[in-house]
## 1
Amino acid sequence: MAYTTIDNGEEHFNTILYTGDGSADNDITGVGFAPDWVWAKNRGAADAHWVLDSTRGATKGLYTNGTAAENTQNHLISFDSDGFSVGNQANGLNTSSNNYVSWNWKCNGGTTSSNSDGDITATVQANTTAGFSIVTYTGNGNASAQTVGHGLGAECKVVIAKSRSIGDESWRVFHESASQSGGGNLFLNGTSGLDTSDPARITSTNTTTFTLDGYHSTYDALNENSATYLAYCFAEKQGYSKFGKFRGNANADGAFIYTGFKPAWLMIKNIGASGTGYHWYIWDNKRDTINVMDNTLHADQSNAENTFDQDIDFVSNGFKLRGSGVGMNPNSHDAIYMAFAEHPFVSSKGVPVTAR
């Protein structure tokens, strides 16, 4: 069996940088494919992290650093064959002379299907090769646990979910390494650690579905009757994606974490006893092209890019912690990560790649 089926990670995930021009239609190219999920951020200003996808449609925006419901604005106005187009929405994705980063995932070209694998019928767009699906569903308000199909055909390791129709509801993150046995979820829009008391969470996943805890009217929920929801779901693919955890040492000579590939994108969150108060840190191979890498953005925060004590090396088979900040390198506590590949450590033909 081949080490990997994906020799070039940029066929399924790619980061691009661009400059806004303030026009009503700024065509952004260079992604290398038609993206189905675009997560974009102004690097130099306190603007939101906008997420848009081809299932919900262009102009349908949510932002990761807040709890607002989905809105319709001219942030992103079309998904194109080699990128996307952005409009002139104020504080959006196209302010003149401002620099932006866009993280782009390929799914299934906007083609969806009805999925009845779970208790709740879902609309699913899936890229089973890369282990990524976009799921939308409508809640039924059932007080007992309910399942939702994800369409990956493989064990689902991570689910990032949010209400589309109800404001003031957090993004909930199920990460297998943190949430095993229903142990708790994380909040992408906040800095809290692992929450084990929240009853409105994703409790488990398998090869066909993820499970929602029963509806609780006094809590934010993922299954309120007639409310609409979005979930981004991920399965691991050897040589392309890895979702795990590590123990930090708050030392500039930090741990090396093996992923089996040279990362293109990495997000880390402290979940241990010191996890509260620390951000979701994001690095990529386009904002930093050489090691040491220290340009980070925070998924939970609108702040501009910064470089404070968040040093990482991307190497041919994983990443090495080079910073002492306890947010990304917690002393004697755990952090979880999500990583996607630039290319695998060993190709499908058994050829090792070169180091960074």
Note: The chain has one helix and 27 strands.
## 2
Amino acid sequence: MHDHQNYNLLLVALSYVVSVLGSFTALQLAVMIPVAQTGKQRTAAVLAAGAAMGIGAIWAMHFIAMLACDMGLQVTYDLPRTALSAVIAFVACSAGLWVAGTGVFSGAKLVLGGVCMGLGVAGMHYLGMAAMMMAGDMSYDMDLVAASIAIAVIASIAALWLAFHMRGPAQMIGSALVMGVAVCGMHYTGMAAMHMEDNGGQVPENFAHGLQGGNLGMTIFGVVVALLVIVLAVNHLRQRRRAAISI
């Protein structure tokens, strides 16, 4: 049995940081969804916020946290499944923001958008776990799986509510810190649900071609943080330009 999970605490900390920064960026971008003048502007705002939340706050956090985990077996990651998990996170978050943010805001839309986003986040997580290739067989504690899905849905509903109600910078920072805890809570609950059994050294066919590398977590962190900072800077300049025009 390889159920003991040891964590690289630096990568665990970086996974939380990227989740907070992604959440903050998404909240900044989501402000534009309800006030968009045209359908094209609204779609652009939804996709931008969906990318920041889905790819930055959720998928990058998930993948860095996976790389932080040492189960005593060499692990590589199937590239198509890993890439698809990122797409699912992006689509789910964009769909949730679209449902909750178009038209008149309501509780029913909030719950529907949150369920859509939460199930997508959970799907991303477990597909990302299925992308792991190693000489071991995975099984799951279904009670903890159910708990992780519930956390994902509740966190998504909270994220959508915050996205359309938080306006001040201090409120957004506080919201992003809370969202980071929620996203990490879902991930580490899902990881705790996993049991690993040694299968006698049998690795999948494309094991050698999978993503791996000691610096992969740091590299993903660096790239995603750089992209999020650029998006925040561009968004800040746009807001200042708009404010100058409206004066």
Note: The chain has a mean pLDDT of 89.
